[in-house]
Amino acid sequence: MAAELRGVLDRIRLHDYLPVLLQNGFDSWDVVCDISEDDMAHLGFKLGHRRILQREIAATRGTSYGQSLASDSTDRSPHATPTPEDSSRAHSTSPLRAEERKKRRYRRKPRPDINAPKKPKTAYVNFADTQRTDPAINAQSFVAIAREVGRRWQALPPEKKHVWECQAARDMQEYEAQMDEYKTTENYRRYQNYLKTFAHNQSRPKRSRSGHRPSAEHDRKSRSNSSDTLSNGTEETSSRPDSGSRKHDECHVAFQLAMQELSVRRDEIMALGVPRFDRHHLPPRDKTCKAAMSCRVGTGSLFFLVREEHLQEMLDHVYTSETIEPFPLMLVFLLAAVGAHYDVECMTDIERHGLFVSAVLMFESDFSSVLDHRAMWVFALLSIHSILEKHVVARHTVDVYLLLRD
After folding, report:
1. What are phi and psi of 38, to 5 degrees?
2. Under DSSP, is residue 278 helix (H, G, I), strand (E, B) or coil?
3. pLDDT band at 295, cuts 50/70/90?
4. Fold of the domain built from segment(s) 2-71+84-103
5. Residues 345, 349, 355, 356: is their CA dihedral positive or negative?
6. pLDDT at 134 exceeding the cut of 90
7. What share of the chain is helix, strand, coil (3-state, %, to 5)?
8. Annotated region Disordered: where (predicted)?
9. Measured between alpha carbons, how far is 222 from 224 in angstroms, rounded to an integer?
10. Taking 90 as the threshold, does the pLDDT of residue 358 lie above it?
């Protein structure tokens, strides 16, 4: 059995790892086929060598490399540079596999659930983390550390090893209890919906860059109607397309995905302790008016977002009316959040973040079911804001804006 393992490692030029594999219980090729990414990391496998081994395991199992192990769950570090040795060994595979790798496209992966309980480490990983605090071990190379930690784990008396395993088992039981409780929460439900919309969005074909664009006359009328809508927010919601239409499905999926990403961005900013604004707690009028006007001037060369007289009407409505309509209030918050990027002296970053968070919360609670011209211009503002913030949520908000605009 060890002879087969030695032969495979010699063939793929990873024979240097044979001793550390044998010392840690990987004494046959069948056992190595069940090795995990964490195991290889703790045994000192270089990233390039892990991929070579994973491809060989995939070939043995008759599956594609993308399906083997959990290789897609760990990305290569953006700062990692392959060594010449890694490159030569990677190119030692067959021409057919090299051609398959060239054709293999990157698949986006869903973001992890930041609210879920963290899965505990195994007994061996906890033991290894403790051993690495020993200066005598920490001063060695990574491969030497993995070899020494594996040797100590194998030599550990059964009663001491049992202590580590019992602690890991208790941690796992606590994790499972936390997961059972977490599955009853709104955050879990939202994440499951996100996974569904993400999978749907990944399966749909990409929109053509050379697709049909609306005529200039249609574009002018659309902008005019949208600007009028911004002033009062009372226009009836336009009828949606037939639920079976492809365009509606694409728009709905993109909208759901964008809302999920916006909620994550909102939670990130709220964690900074930003202020919350609403009809009862308005930001200072002079700052808001100055920022909103800066948005109109700053974006005027690119977008026609709102006419000056309509913007002034909305500001007067928000700050002088006894009953404030939610849609103009939300738009004023968004316009001011965008404008604060163009006039950085009109308000602080904390106030600007508070306006954005407040607008997103209002949109989620009052207008998340609206997919008409009003939503188009809201997503135009969200897109501009995200681009100015240099945040990746912009690609989702822009997608929704373009779908609604078409």
Report:
1. -65, -40
2. strand
3. confident
4. DNA polymerase; domain 1 (1.10.150)
5. positive
6. no
7. 65, 0, 35
8. 63-124, 197-249
9. 5
10. yes
